[in-house]
Amino acid sequence: MSSGNNGDNDVIRAAGCVLWRRSPYDDGLEVCLVHRPKYDDWSHPKGKLKRREDALAGALREVEEETGFRCAPGARLPTAHYVANGRPKQVEYWAAEATDGTFRPNREVDRIAWLSPTAARHRLTQPRDKTLVDALLSALHLT
Asked: Where does the record place the Nudix hydrolase domain (predicted)?
């Protein structure tokens, strides 16, 4: 939430989820990563919040827009803070279990991958995203 001081106007607010499911093959945990052709990177589904949008609502909206999946939000995960295009960015994350949906390639995301936590850590482009996989496992009491 914004604290109301003038500096908050400069912060890019975003939200996303570490989307997970039980594998349809072996019941193991799978994490969904998205590939963004604009950046040629692999990340967790996330995006900028709309004006006055609640962070969790924005995270769920972004997951559905980028992956085609609806999800049930769970534990709050660590917030990422970094600089993007010279501006501070804050991304709030939640663990979220995929409930139903179907992926269709779109302008922002051309493919998704459901991977084991270890494979997801290796595929993620940014180191800060790798730590979110560990936070998910901790939140699900799997560490």
From this structure: 10-138
